[in-house]
Design goal:
heterodimer; A: alpha/beta; D-Maltodextrin-Binding Protein, domain 2; 2 domains; 10-stranded mixed beta sheet; 39% helix; globular; B: mainly alpha; two-stranded antiparallel ribbon; transmembrane helix (chain B); DUF112_TM (chain B); transmembrane (chain B)
Chain lengths: 314, 502
Amino acid sequence: MKEILAALTITGFAAAPAFAEFPDKPIKIVVGYSAGGGTDVIARTVAQFLEKELGDGASVIVKNIPGAGGQIGFTEVAKAAPDGYTLGTFNLPAALALTKDRSADYDVNSFTYLANFVEDSNTVVVSASSEFKTLEELLALAKKNPGAVTFGLSSLGGNDHFAANMLADASKADFTLVPFKGAAMARTALLGGHVAAGTMALSQTTSFKDEIRVLAVLSDERSPFRPDVPTAKELGYDVEMSSLRGIVGPAGMDADLTGKLRDVLNVVNKNPDFQKAMADQGNPMAFIAGDAFADLARKQDGVAQAIWDKSPWK
Amino acid sequence: MYLDLLHALPEVLSFTNFAAVIIGVIAGIVVGAMPGLSATMAISVLVPFTFGLEPLVALGLMAGIYNGAMYGGAIPAVLLRIPGTPAAVATTFDGYPMAQKGEGGFALQVAVVSSSIGGVASAFALMLLAPPLSKVTLLFGPSEVFWVAVFGLASIIFLLGGSAIKGLISACFGVFVSVIGSDPIFGTDRFTFGQLELLDGINIVILLVGLYALPPVIDLLEVPLKTDGVSSSKLGTEPLWRALPRMTRFWKTWIRSSIIGIWIGILPGAGGSMAAFISYNEARRASKTPDTWGKGEPEGVAAAETANNADTASALIPALTLGIPGTAVAAVMLGGLLIHGLQPGPMLFRDNPDIVFGFMWQFLFGAILLVLVGGSLATNSFARLLNLPRPLLGSVIIVLMLIGVYSIHSRMFDVYLMLGFGAIGYVMDKLNFPLPPVVLGLILGGFAEENLRLALRIGRGDWTILFANVTSLVLVALTVAVVVGPMIKRHFDKKREAGGEV
C-alpha cells in the first residue's frame, strides 16, 4: 500500500515542476512545541535535508511557537498565506482532537497535506514484573472487575487516550484511565507499580526492553522493531491507533506548488542519510504523501469526533 | 559500569570537549546573573545549534551552562535582592543583608564555594549512584509526590518567621496563580478568559521577574543619582584563599544541603527552588543562632547555594534513566540528547556509555571550574556593577527583564503579564507581605493538585490511597513534625519564661 503511494509520487516527480523560481526567500516550518521535543527534532531533521534537496541556496528555518498543546502553532500555519513559505509540523490525532474539546480557529480542512513521515503505533504495556503475561489475561480481569485495572496514559484527548478507549470498546472491558503529564511520567508510574497497565507509543518502550512487557501493538501488521509482539488484530481486537507526524501547509496552496513540495519531500524521504538520522532518533517511519495523507487526516478526525460524541473527556 | 566511567574520561579531557565546559560555565554565570534570563532559556536557545556539533561538545556546553547559571543567579540576589534564577530566591534572604552590611564580596565567595561543593556532590551522586537512585524515584508515585509538595508548602509557612497570616496569604496567592490555565486532568480552562496564552498556565519566570525584579528596580530609581558607589573595600572583597578559612565552619551545612539537594533533584518536578528553601529551613533549624538568620548570616547563603547546585546533576538521574526530567532545565537537556540520537532509558547506559559517562564527568568538571572561573569573575566584574549610576543600572535591568520575558514564548502578552505581577509585587513589598511563598505556592500548588487528583483516580476516589504505603506515611510524619514542631517549641519556651518569672 505504502509502496504504491511512493511509486505514484515518483511518477509525479518526473513531470518538471512549473515553479522554477520557488523558493526565493526562506521557508519557515512552524513547530507547535518547544525546541528539543520529539516533534521539533523531526522538523529540524526534515528542514536540514529539505534545504539540501531544494538546492540553490534555499534556506529552511524551524520556528517554535509552543503553547496550548500545540494549538497556537497549528493555528499559525492554518492562518498563514498559502504561498509555500509557511509550513508546519502536524501531529495526528492530537492536532484534530484539540478541535473537539475546545474552540479552535482551524479544522481538518484548514490545511494542505504534504507528507507524513512518522507513524508510531500505540502499544498495550505492563511492567516486566507484572502478573499479566498476555493481553487476554489483562482484559479478563478488566471485564470481570470493571475499573479494577488502572491504565496509565500521557494525556486525555491524544492517541493514548483514543487507543485505551477503542480497546475498551472492542473488548467490552472497563479500565480506570489515569492521564499523567506526558508519556515519560506514565511510563515511570508503570515501572514503579503505581498503575497496573498502560498504553504508549512503541518508540517509548524501545529504551526499556528489559523493564516493560509489550502485550500488543495496535497496528494492522507487526512492527519491524518488535516482530515478537502480536498485533491486537491477531488477538481478535480490531483496534488501530498511532501517533503520526508530518508536514502540512495552509489550505488553498496552488496545485503546482503543492506538487513541487510533495516531490521534494519525497526525495528527502528517499535519502538514506535522512532515513538513518530518523532511525537514530527512534522514529518509526511511514511515508504517506499527498491525498492519502489528507484521507488519513479525515479518518482520524472522524475517530476523534466519534469518541468525543460518545464519551467527552471534559 | 565503573570501568565505563574511567573509559569515558580521556575523551572528555580532549581540548574541544573541555573548552566547551569552560565556555559553558562562563556563559552560564553571565546568563544566570541577568534577571529574566535563566538556564532553561539559555539551553533552549542552544539546543537547535547543537545539531551540527559533536555530542560531547554540545553536552559539555549544556553541563557548563547549567552549573554556571545556578551560581550566577546568586550574584544579583546578593547585590540587588533580585534573584537571577528561580532557585536563587532563598539566597536573597541573607545574601542581600550581607551586601548592605558591606560583606557582599564575602557573600559571593560563600555562594561560589558552596555552589561548587553542591555541584561536585551532585555529580558524584550521578556518576556513582544513578541506577540505584533511579529506583528511589520509582517509589514516588502520585500519592507520595503529593505529600512531598505538601511538606514543601508546610515548611515555608514557618520558614519566614514574621507574620504567619501574611505568609499564608502570599502562599494562597501563589497557589491561585498555579490554578490558572487548563486543569491537569481534563484540560478544562480555568481563569483563562479565552486567552490561548494562558492555557498552559503562567510560567514561573514571568512571575519571578515581575514579582522580584521590578520592585527593587523601582526602589533603585526612587532615590536617583545617589551614586555613593561601592568601592571594592566596602564590598569586603579579599582573595578567595584568605576568605576560605572563614567558611570551614559551614561543613555541616554543606553536607546536609548537598543531601537535600540531591534528594529533591531525583524527585520528578520539584526543582532547585524547593531544594534551596528546604535546605535553608533545615539549616536554620539546626543553627545555634537562628535569630541571626535573615539578617546577614553567611551560613544561610551557603545552605541555599549548596542545595540549588546539588540538584543539578541529580535531576539528570531520573532524566537519563527514566526519561522524566527533575527540572525544567533537565527537560530541555533531554531534547539536546535526543537530537544526537540518545534516547533516555536503561538502554542508553548500555548503548552509549562513552557519551553518557562523559556527560557525567563534564558535570563534575563544570562544578569544579565554577570556583576557578566564578570566583574571580564575580568579585572582579559583576560586583562592580553597583558602581554604575543608579538610573543606568535600573534601566539596564528593566531592558534585560523585558527581553528575557519576551523570549520565553516570543510574545508581548507575557511582558504585560510580568508588568502586572510587578505592580502586585511592589504593593506586597510595601505592605510587608513576604514574596517567597508566592513562588513556592505557584510551583508546589500545581504539583500538589495534579498528583492528588492522579492519586485519587488511581484509588478510584478512595482517600485512603494517600496513606497506603510506608513512603507516604513517612512523608506525612515529616509534614506533621514541620508544622507541630515549632508550635510545641514555642509553647515550651513560653512556659519556661513564665516559670522563670515565678
